[in-house]
Amino acid sequence: MMDNDMFGNTMWAGHWLWMLVIAIAVVIPAWRICQRTGFPGWMGVLILIPIVNLALLYFIAFADWPVERDSEGRS
Q: Which domain of life is it from (predicted)?
């Protein structure tokens, strides 16, 4: 029934564009969160990998942030 339309079995060009937009919308905030907590910003790219993204969130939530360690040393 859906043999020759853009939503058939093939991937249409808009799909790749949509995937890029979503990836950018997710990676940029994750990158900034990693930077603000004192971790390398590239760790934000890990948010795109299934299962690893959950591990990253738990790591950031429960790890001792380098930013907090630095601010405690200055007091």
A: Bacteria
